[in-house]
Design brief:
The chain is α+β, with helices and mostly antiparallel strands. The chain contains 3 helices and 8 strands. It is about 25% helix and about 25% strand.
Amino acid sequence: MSKLISGKEAFMAHLDGESVQWRDRNYDWNDWSEHTSWCSEALLSSHYQFRLKPRTITINGIEVPAPFEPESDQEYWILSESYYSNDGYKLMLPDRQQPKIAYGAWRTEEEIKQVVAALRSVFK
């Protein structure tokens, strides 16, 4: 899940050319560009939420979350062909001696599951 940002941060990010999304708390996320008639009340209202649009990549025609570069104090998920797991991924806990990330890291188990499913679809 992407981190929420303030209306001011969303406005500044939009001006900087970043992809921003908004939503009323009861609805799905919308791209900022789909609704350009914003006023200051909407940006300052606590009724709306804002975030930077999550980056994605395409694997075998399936859009999945893009990998990210974790900080040393973050946990993350990586692809794995471990003898002990058939899942195709594993959790990496924060550590100073992390192994080199060969194929990318994902923030949540939900994200890595999407990536593994897309990769497995290549071989079906």
